[in-house]
Task: structure prediction
Amino acid sequence: MFFIIKRGLSPKFKKVKDKALKVNSLLQKELNQIFLKDIEFPQGLLVTITRVETSDDLYHARIYISVLPENGEERVLRILDKLIYPIQQKINHRLRMRPIPQIRFVKETETFEAGKIEGLLYDIKKNEH
Result:
């Protein structure tokens, strides 16, 4: 007879994950403020931070950016790449923690893919009736 023993997350691992989630939320909040007050994006583009993923050691963070209309994504990422140093400096001054993650902006792809799948499911459901 075999027994399967299920373990939960170790307390140490859970603590690290909880801290990373808090840092993700804090970074997203601060970056949203910076985007609103300090960065001028081209007119007609809607720029959104969809999510933040911080490494377990809290030294690196990927900031996922969504842009509407989609043809402005590369333009916005170029703007953010040029401004990465001043944005990082603002984050460094605003956050009272160590280490402060080094940020990197990346294009959001999961949200776009999820939207396409939802559209396909809607079309299938509509065609069934």
User: Anything to note?
Assistant: Residues 11-38 form the longest helix (28 residues). Confidence is low (pLDDT under 50) at residues 1-6. Strands lie at 46-54, 60-68, 102-107. The domain at 11-128 is CATH 3.30.300.20 (GMP Synthetase; Chain A, domain 3).
